[in-house]
TrEMBL record:
It comes from the Bacteria. This is Serine hydrolase domain-containing protein. Pfam families: Beta-lactamase. GO terms for molecular function: hydrolase activity. Its EC number is 3.-.-.-. Keywords: Hydrolase. Residues 22-403 form the Beta-lactamase-related domain.
Amino acid sequence: MALEIEVDPSEVGFDAARLQRIDRHFEQYVSSGKLPGWLVLVSRRGKIAHLSTRGMRDVANGLPVERDTVFRIYSMTKPITSVAAMLLAEEGAFELTDPVSDFIPAFADLRVYTGGPARAPQTRPATEPMRIWHLLTHTSGLTYAFNHLHPVDEMYREAGFENGMAPGLDLASCCDQWAAMPLLFDPGSRWNYSVATDVLGRVVEAASGQSLDRFFQTRIFDPLGMTDTGFYLDRSDEHRLASLYLADRQGRARLHPRHDQAREAAFEPPKAPSGGGGLLSTAHDYHRFTRFLLNRGELDGVRLLGSRTVDYMTRNHLPGGADLETLAMGAFSEAANAGKGFGLGFSVVDDPAAAKVISSQGEYAWGGLASTAFWVDPAEEIAVQFMTQLMPSSTHPIRSQLHQLVYQALVD
């Protein structure tokens, strides 16, 4: 299905001339070489009011970003995995307070890092079981190899997880390895961006009796009409896949050194499907997903989640109502984190003034490693997404600038 502008901006409260500021601003990113190309989509009340593309999906071959370009969405996979988990929770497959070890036995006897180097860590028993809600909120005590902030991060790298899943392991084996390494903290006590959503994907498998890719396909993608989203791409669509770029020291986009390897991997079913970052998708498909969220669990007459479940997922679940700036261990994104909590798979704005970025209370969002981003604002009935392929996402302040440019165009 083609992606098209569906409504005159003025009919949904936008000033069309002000929306053009988005394009003029981000055109400079392309002309200066900071981004290879991009797609931006702004919708309100379920209708696309602004849709534009600039630059190239493949610079070397002169292929432009088009409306059906396929992007690696990396951590924008996480909200989809969270929805999968909540589908099962609604059916009574588990409660959010259930221990993860009920589904992955290796997580039964967890230990917490207390000191020492990565090769000889000192540990103690965890005081709290890791529970499913800890996975959904990134309060599990797990980490990512790429964080480079803690000795346990180094342990993950030494175990082969530096570039995602360890080579040769399936998802169950990856989870067993993570369970064998120390936690950074007792579950529920801090926030740390981590492989928690990959573990959650394994919980989905164990609770449903289906592989994660099959569960996604039958329970989410098919019902929502997300026809171009999956863990790998058919060879017939190879021409639509965007190339992967890495920022150099000056912030300019250069073809990623592992681009050829990443490109080939995009056409192979993964041995360990990553619920934390493994999906490829299009602006059309992710717009379907954000519309489903904005409609509180329903799209085009198909209801996947109850409205109260979506409301519950998109409120702040951090202990004591804390924000990420207070509870998070280290930096993990370019976005300002003051005034933002975390729900069940999304960041959530609690205090727009504290964040110093124009937004609404209750707005929820997330992004991906290659600078993709989305947010949903229930108060204004807005959903926005930005697609590109530049790593890392912290290179440029794209997300905060896009916020400013979208909200300044809202004039009703």
